[in-house]
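LAB NOTEBOOK - FOLDING QUEUE
OPERATOR: T.R.
BATCH SIZE: 2
PURPOSE: Compare the predicted structure-token outputs for two unrelated chains run back to back under identical settings.
PRIORITY: normal
REVIEWER: second-year student, initials M.K.

ITEM 1
FIELD SEQUENCE / FIELD STRUCTURE:
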Amino acid sequence: MKQNPLSFQLKLKPEDFLPATEEEKQSQIVMRESVSFWKDGMRRLVKNKVAMVSLVVIVLVMIFSFIVPAFYPYNYREQFKGANHLAPMEYSAEEQARIDAGEKVFPHIFGTDKMGRDYAIRVMMGSRISLVVGLIATAIILVIGSIYGSVAAFFGGWVDLVMMRIVDIIYTIPDILLIVLLSFALKEPLYNLKEVPGFGWVGVVGENLISIFIVFALLYWVGMARMVRSQILTLKESEYVTAARALGVSNKKIIRRHLLTNCIGTLIVTTTLQIPSSIFTESFLSFLGMGVAVPLPSLGSLASDALNGINTYPYLLFIPSALISLIILSFNLFGDGLRDAFDPKLKH
């Protein structure tokens, strides 16, 4: 029977009702492979070339700051007679005489400063101080901010209202003024760090460095607290939190095991982006003379000392400034890569 060409009726054949083959079934599968949150995030992070290059730079800076000084022949406090303001790869008259006598002398790669100290080892130790301060300060911010923000969001009501008003008040406190006041209040160094064989680490830590940590603990955690609070406000309405409450799980365990654990990706991203901010703050304060105590170097204090001879010895200012910029840029780009990889809102 011939079918009307204007009819919408389908013309089917008996073979159309046969079971589909395995190849035909597989061709209909459009779902991607099921992977975990961390595996999916790491896979997308590895594909981010800018983030991976930044990670390599961070690792190289870590090696430069923490491992190379163990094998470097000079100490950051050692002064060489007649070696003031040597140019990079230049020798003093005494060292040149030793070389002429057949002795091997390691060159001053970045030259020397006004006191005849090898500048390369001082840059290494300065970058180590900046990194250590940035990492410790960020850890302080992470602990205080995550605990404070999660407690405020979990309990809500008047508890959240009071705690967030305290955060608003802390935002109004000028951090530089507080650092200056603490620097004058802490007249004596609170502790010393002993020498570590091979690392030459790190002499006396002055009161200004302690004041920096105190200020980070008092002021800079408020941004982290607000971020954690916004995450917990959403997560606490989830079914698994309701089930945990019904089972009699304590509030402390719910916050630690269920809420903070489920926003760990955001915490990692925020913490990574906080590290360059902490490093910049320390370098800025050291540049103003409110950082680490002499003779301990910091990248900010090295740049500050080099200002007096900027016209004659510009490399003394360029080297620490370039290293600060490189560290901060690398951490920022790596943090952006982590955000793109682990933020669920940015998945595509």
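ITEM 2
FIELD SEQUENCE / FIELD STRUCTURE:
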Amino acid sequence: MSIFSMIAAGEIPSYKCAEDERFYAFLDINPVAKGHTLVIPREETDYIFDLDDQTLADLHVFAKKVALAIKQVLPCQKVGMAVLGLEVPHAHIHLIPLKSEGDMDFRKEKLQLPKEEMQAVADEIYAAFKAL
């Protein structure tokens, strides 16, 4: 079982931003920008393009709704999306609030935000997600 499966199952704590029966979104604990969110299918699949077509499409629709919630909560021009998938063997999408293209640079130093701030951001995104 991957760490992301354990997070989605509630076995490992996370800063939950959104969920339904098939997908789960939570804040990245090593964010490149405030509000950096990971979106995963609950079904454990290593490579995103190994998902069946309907699940892949539904994952992107779910991620779109999460991105809309992020944009409501955090000041940004757009929400960027990236699929890297090398660091954890579980398909996932990165959603990152963008003020500039440099905000998507995964090589830059990661932010260290207090737990209280992370929880507050996650709670605001979750509330905005539920309101959509």
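REVIEWER COMMENT (ITEM 2): Strands lie at 16-19, 23-27, 37-41, 78-82, 93-98.
FOLLOW-UP: none requested
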